[in-house]
Amino acid sequence: MEKPDFIANDVIDGVWSFLQSIEWRDPWFALLLTFHVAVTMTALMTRNHANFQIILFLALLLLVYFSESINEMAATNWMVFSKQQYFDSKGLFISIVFSVPILINCMIMVASWLYQSSQLMTSLKKAQLREQAKNRRTDGESTTTNGKSARQKQE
Hints:
With about 160 residues, this protein is an all-alpha fold.
């Protein structure tokens, strides 16, 4: 009989107890944490570089999209990099330690884009109002000037 590649997740009674059962001192967790910190720092430091952020955003979403395949591959080869088999058939583990932090980074980027858009719209509206006020002053002065010259011609 062939040994299953995934652990059974019917024994998991809660996310908190599941997180407590993980051996966080496994060396590959340090690499995963470093990856998440690097992605977060990159997302924050490049917030004014729209093209790069779009590429980063799409790459992160692709990683989340392929997390099921990554989970299957990790479940098959877990002995190469881990002390325990964490990769369950439903993908709870990879969702918690891999996909959720990536999606949080994506949400931070979207929030940053919305903030930048609102700031841009605010400054655009201010510029429009300044331009309208300037045009009113210019129109008012030309009307006053034209009115004076018309009166002077009548006299």
